[in-house]
Amino acid sequence: MTSSLRFDRQLYDLIKGNLRKHRVASLQREGRKRAAVAFTLINANAPSRIGNIPYDSAKNDDAAYILTTRSASLSSHSGQRAYPGGRVDPGETAEQAALRELAEEVGLELDSGSVLGRLDDYATRSGFVITPIVIWGGTDVELVANPAEVELIHRIPLRELLRVDAPLLDSIEESPHPVLRMPLGDDWFAAPSAAIAYQFREVALLGKATRVVHFEQPYFAWQ
Question: Are strands 115-118 and 128-138 parallel, antiparallel or unpaired?
Fold first, then answer.
Protein backbone atom coordinates (compact mmCIF):
# COMPACT_ATOMS: atom_id res chain seq x y z
CA MET A 1 0.00 0.00 0.00
CA THR A 2 1.13 3.58 -0.64
CA SER A 3 2.47 4.95 2.63
CA SER A 4 1.74 8.65 2.05
CA LEU A 5 -1.94 8.32 1.05
CA ARG A 6 -1.52 11.17 -1.41
CA PHE A 7 -4.40 11.84 -3.75
CA ASP A 8 -2.63 10.75 -6.88
CA ARG A 9 -2.52 8.17 -9.66
CA GLN A 10 -0.76 5.63 -7.43
CA LEU A 11 -3.66 5.69 -4.98
CA TYR A 12 -6.18 5.58 -7.83
CA ASP A 13 -4.57 2.47 -9.29
CA LEU A 14 -4.29 0.80 -5.88
CA ILE A 15 -7.95 1.30 -5.02
CA LYS A 16 -9.29 0.41 -8.44
CA GLY A 17 -7.12 -2.70 -8.62
CA ASN A 18 -8.13 -3.92 -5.17
CA LEU A 19 -11.82 -3.32 -5.88
CA ARG A 20 -11.56 -5.18 -9.16
CA LYS A 21 -10.20 -8.23 -7.31
CA HIS A 22 -12.85 -8.05 -4.58
CA ARG A 23 -15.67 -10.59 -4.84
CA VAL A 24 -18.65 -8.42 -4.00
CA ALA A 25 -21.26 -9.90 -1.67
CA SER A 26 -24.75 -8.88 -2.75
CA LEU A 27 -27.83 -9.22 -0.54
CA GLN A 28 -31.37 -10.11 -1.47
CA ARG A 29 -33.79 -7.31 -0.68
CA GLU A 30 -36.18 -9.56 1.28
CA GLY A 31 -38.70 -6.75 1.69
CA ARG A 32 -36.08 -4.08 2.31
CA LYS A 33 -35.76 -0.94 0.22
CA ARG A 34 -32.78 -0.42 -2.09
CA ALA A 35 -30.35 2.42 -1.41
CA ALA A 36 -26.93 3.46 -2.64
CA VAL A 37 -24.25 5.69 -1.13
CA ALA A 38 -21.25 7.42 -2.66
CA PHE A 39 -17.96 6.79 -0.85
CA THR A 40 -16.16 9.63 -2.61
CA LEU A 41 -12.43 10.34 -2.64
CA ILE A 42 -11.07 13.87 -2.95
CA ASN A 43 -8.03 15.76 -1.69
CA ALA A 44 -7.84 17.14 1.83
CA ASN A 45 -7.76 20.83 0.96
CA ALA A 46 -10.13 22.08 3.65
CA PRO A 47 -10.67 21.50 7.39
CA SER A 48 -12.73 18.47 8.33
CA ARG A 49 -14.86 20.43 10.83
CA ILE A 50 -15.36 17.39 13.00
CA GLY A 51 -13.62 15.72 15.94
CA ASN A 52 -10.87 18.34 16.15
CA ILE A 53 -9.06 16.63 13.27
CA PRO A 54 -6.10 18.94 12.60
CA TYR A 55 -5.85 20.71 9.26
CA ASP A 56 -2.47 21.39 7.63
CA SER A 57 -2.53 23.28 4.32
CA ALA A 58 0.85 21.74 3.53
CA LYS A 59 -0.98 18.39 3.25
CA ASN A 60 -3.60 19.48 0.69
CA ASP A 61 -2.36 16.71 -1.62
CA ASP A 62 -3.33 14.04 0.91
CA ALA A 63 -6.38 11.93 0.15
CA ALA A 64 -9.69 12.34 1.96
CA TYR A 65 -13.24 11.05 1.71
CA ILE A 66 -16.56 12.88 1.91
CA LEU A 67 -18.69 12.39 5.01
CA THR A 68 -21.69 14.50 5.95
CA THR A 69 -23.70 15.37 9.01
CA ARG A 70 -27.35 14.99 8.09
CA SER A 71 -29.66 17.96 8.53
CA ALA A 72 -31.42 18.29 11.88
CA SER A 73 -34.69 18.91 10.01
CA LEU A 74 -34.84 15.44 8.44
CA SER A 75 -37.59 13.13 9.65
CA SER A 76 -35.24 10.14 10.01
CA HIS A 77 -31.61 9.77 11.04
CA SER A 78 -31.24 13.52 11.55
CA GLY A 79 -27.83 14.65 12.72
CA GLN A 80 -26.18 11.33 11.94
CA ARG A 81 -22.95 10.85 9.97
CA ALA A 82 -23.58 9.61 6.47
CA TYR A 83 -22.31 9.52 2.91
CA PRO A 84 -24.24 11.21 0.13
CA GLY A 85 -26.87 8.68 -0.84
CA GLY A 86 -30.46 7.59 -0.78
CA ARG A 87 -33.05 5.36 -2.36
CA VAL A 88 -32.47 3.79 -5.75
CA ASP A 89 -35.27 5.05 -8.00
CA PRO A 90 -37.13 2.68 -10.36
CA GLY A 91 -35.03 2.08 -13.46
CA GLU A 92 -31.81 3.26 -11.82
CA THR A 93 -28.68 1.27 -11.10
CA ALA A 94 -26.93 1.67 -7.75
CA GLU A 95 -24.14 3.59 -9.52
CA GLN A 96 -26.60 6.01 -11.09
CA ALA A 97 -28.34 6.58 -7.77
CA ALA A 98 -25.06 7.23 -5.93
CA LEU A 99 -23.93 9.76 -8.54
CA ARG A 100 -27.34 11.48 -8.50
CA GLU A 101 -27.35 11.75 -4.72
CA LEU A 102 -23.76 13.04 -4.73
CA ALA A 103 -24.85 15.89 -7.00
CA GLU A 104 -28.04 16.57 -5.05
CA GLU A 105 -26.52 16.57 -1.56
CA VAL A 106 -23.07 18.17 -1.98
CA GLY A 107 -23.17 19.63 -5.49
CA LEU A 108 -20.53 17.33 -7.00
CA GLU A 109 -21.60 16.29 -10.51
CA LEU A 110 -19.69 13.35 -11.97
CA ASP A 111 -20.30 10.70 -14.59
CA SER A 112 -19.89 6.94 -14.60
CA GLY A 113 -16.22 7.25 -15.53
CA SER A 114 -15.52 8.37 -11.96
CA VAL A 115 -16.71 5.06 -10.46
CA LEU A 116 -13.86 2.88 -9.15
CA GLY A 117 -15.98 -0.06 -8.01
CA ARG A 118 -18.25 -1.10 -5.18
CA LEU A 119 -18.19 -2.70 -1.77
CA ASP A 120 -20.50 -5.30 -0.24
CA ASP A 121 -24.17 -4.65 0.32
CA TYR A 122 -25.09 -3.83 3.91
CA ALA A 123 -28.54 -4.39 5.43
CA THR A 124 -29.65 -1.74 7.90
CA ARG A 125 -31.91 -2.07 10.92
CA SER A 126 -34.09 0.67 9.42
CA GLY A 127 -35.08 -1.49 6.45
CA PHE A 128 -32.64 -0.75 3.64
CA VAL A 129 -30.05 -2.68 1.69
CA ILE A 130 -27.25 -0.21 0.99
CA THR A 131 -24.88 -0.60 -1.96
CA PRO A 132 -21.69 1.46 -1.43
CA ILE A 133 -20.21 2.88 -4.66
CA VAL A 134 -16.58 4.05 -4.54
CA ILE A 135 -16.02 7.22 -6.56
CA TRP A 136 -12.94 9.24 -7.55
CA GLY A 137 -14.15 12.77 -6.95
CA GLY A 138 -11.30 14.89 -8.27
CA THR A 139 -8.88 17.51 -6.97
CA ASP A 140 -9.90 20.82 -5.35
CA VAL A 141 -13.59 20.24 -6.04
CA GLU A 142 -16.15 22.72 -4.75
CA LEU A 143 -18.69 21.14 -2.42
CA VAL A 144 -21.96 22.89 -1.57
CA ALA A 145 -24.28 21.42 1.05
CA ASN A 146 -27.97 21.08 0.18
CA PRO A 147 -29.48 22.51 3.39
CA ALA A 148 -32.58 20.34 3.08
CA GLU A 149 -30.44 17.23 3.58
CA VAL A 150 -26.95 18.17 4.78
CA GLU A 151 -25.91 20.18 7.83
CA LEU A 152 -22.15 19.94 7.27
CA ILE A 153 -19.74 18.44 4.74
CA HIS A 154 -16.57 16.86 6.14
CA ARG A 155 -13.36 16.02 4.26
CA ILE A 156 -11.95 13.18 6.36
CA PRO A 157 -8.27 12.36 5.73
CA LEU A 158 -7.84 8.70 4.70
CA ARG A 159 -5.17 8.33 7.36
CA GLU A 160 -7.99 8.36 9.95
CA LEU A 161 -9.09 4.96 8.61
CA LEU A 162 -5.68 3.45 9.40
CA ARG A 163 -5.53 4.45 13.05
CA VAL A 164 -4.39 1.68 15.41
CA ASP A 165 -7.54 2.14 17.51
CA ALA A 166 -9.84 1.41 14.56
CA PRO A 167 -12.29 -0.20 14.52
CA LEU A 168 -14.00 0.26 17.88
CA LEU A 169 -16.22 -2.70 18.81
CA ASP A 170 -18.97 -2.56 21.46
CA SER A 171 -21.01 -5.47 22.78
CA ILE A 172 -24.77 -5.11 23.25
CA GLU A 173 -27.23 -7.48 24.88
CA GLU A 174 -29.64 -7.47 21.93
CA SER A 175 -27.21 -8.94 19.40
CA PRO A 176 -24.48 -11.60 19.25
CA HIS A 177 -22.48 -9.25 17.01
CA PRO A 178 -20.61 -6.14 18.15
CA VAL A 179 -21.52 -2.61 17.15
CA LEU A 180 -18.79 -1.22 14.90
CA ARG A 181 -17.57 2.36 15.24
CA MET A 182 -14.72 4.21 13.53
CA PRO A 183 -12.80 7.10 15.13
CA LEU A 184 -12.94 10.65 13.77
CA GLY A 185 -10.29 12.64 15.59
CA ASP A 186 -11.57 12.69 19.16
CA ASP A 187 -15.08 11.79 17.95
CA TRP A 188 -16.49 8.70 16.20
CA PHE A 189 -19.20 7.46 13.86
CA ALA A 190 -20.99 4.14 13.77
CA ALA A 191 -22.34 1.52 11.38
CA PRO A 192 -23.82 1.55 8.81
CA SER A 193 -21.48 4.34 7.65
CA ALA A 194 -18.59 3.14 9.80
CA ALA A 195 -18.92 -0.43 8.51
CA ILE A 196 -18.57 0.87 4.95
CA ALA A 197 -15.52 2.94 5.92
CA TYR A 198 -13.94 -0.05 7.63
CA GLN A 199 -14.49 -2.32 4.63
CA PHE A 200 -13.07 0.35 2.32
CA ARG A 201 -9.95 0.37 4.50
CA GLU A 202 -9.63 -3.39 4.52
CA VAL A 203 -10.50 -4.09 0.87
CA ALA A 204 -9.57 -1.00 -1.13
CA LEU A 205 -6.50 0.15 0.80
CA LEU A 206 -5.12 -3.05 2.33
CA GLY A 207 -6.28 -5.62 -0.23
CA LYS A 208 -7.93 -7.90 2.33
CA ALA A 209 -11.07 -10.01 1.87
CA THR A 210 -12.88 -8.56 4.90
CA ARG A 211 -16.66 -8.78 5.29
CA VAL A 212 -18.72 -6.38 7.42
CA VAL A 213 -22.35 -7.38 6.93
CA HIS A 214 -22.47 -9.03 10.35
CA PHE A 215 -21.48 -5.95 12.32
CA GLU A 216 -24.25 -4.42 14.37
CA GLN A 217 -25.54 -0.84 14.44
CA PRO A 218 -26.14 1.30 17.55
CA TYR A 219 -29.66 1.70 18.91
CA PHE A 220 -30.15 5.19 17.45
CA ALA A 221 -29.75 3.76 13.92
CA TRP A 222 -32.48 1.13 14.38
CA GLN A 223 -35.36 3.52 13.58
Answer: antiparallel
